[in-house]
Amino acid sequence: MNLKPQNALSRLIRQYLVPAAMLVLTSLNTIAAPAAAPLEGRWDITVDVNGKPSPSWLEVRHSGYNTLVGQFTGFSGSARPVSKVNFKDGKMSFSIPPQWEKSEKDLTVEGTLSGDKLSGSLTTPDGKTYSWTGVRAPSLRKTAEPAWGKPIKLSDGNVIKGWHAFGENQWVAENGILRSPKSGANLITDEKFGDFKLHIEFRIPKGSNSGVYLRGRYEIQVTDSKGMEPSLDQMGAVYGFISPSEMVAKEAGEWNSLDITLIGRMLTLDANGKTVICNQEIPGITGGALDSNEGEPGPIYIQGDHGPVEYRNIVITPAK
């Protein structure tokens, strides 16, 4: 019996084309993924700036088969993308454009990998060179919700208790309000914390700027941001890393509230009663951190070196 043309075509497709296509797909699926370069991962870095240890941070990851990219936080400024990390025979290098420096030259970083340690040199856009060392950053991943301890009040009355100024103090305590009337020293808690819940309220005049540092390493941005689009450098952001989902800042001069939960690296942040960051990972330290020892507890510190600001009703509930 003669086959109709369409039936003959269908048989040819089943006998020859389908198996050929399956073979191609199988071959594609068996192509090995690129092996991770030993440099990949996150690195907590300490830069020796004229004898003073200054924190920094680097993340390296692969893009495609042969390219390494990443992001870098220097000892000043915010996290910035690295478009290419050169790595061969244990030697690494990269460069990024200047951020706040008034220079047309790049910041350049060179280093050598030895096991789980990095060391090298960093040259700023203004031509100064510093040595640095780095270790792999801890994951800080937790498998269970912590049990919470008793709340601790960090602002009360007319005396500053439980805090110390990093520099010449300009902060004053008035009726439970910690007030910085002008740019000056940052204020740091005497006690250090691991996982915690933090409630804090702030009032900031028009055009001023501050920040709340978690464990002294991760800055939650405090700015006069009413009417602005959410971004990495406005209120409620983890500076340089995570933007809030929406901007809920009040008018300059009004009180704003932040409710923060930090477990390991995972952050949830409510601003003025709205969840604007929901259980997101903070990759690494932000600019202005006290240190890069991410595996250790750290203090709360509030920025007083960027303009006038007031804080009140500061209550922290540490994990047991």
From TrEMBL:
Gene3D superfamilies, per the entry: Exo-inulinase, domain 1 (2.60.120.560)
Signal sequence, renumbered to the chain: 1-32
Keyword Signal included in the entry's annotation: yes
Keywords: Signal
Domain 3-keto-alpha-glucoside-1,2-lyase/3-keto-2-hydroxy-glucal hydratase: 151-316
Transmembrane spans: none
Protein name (Swiss-Prot/TrEMBL): DUF1080 domain-containing protein
UniProt organism field: Dyadobacter sandarakinus
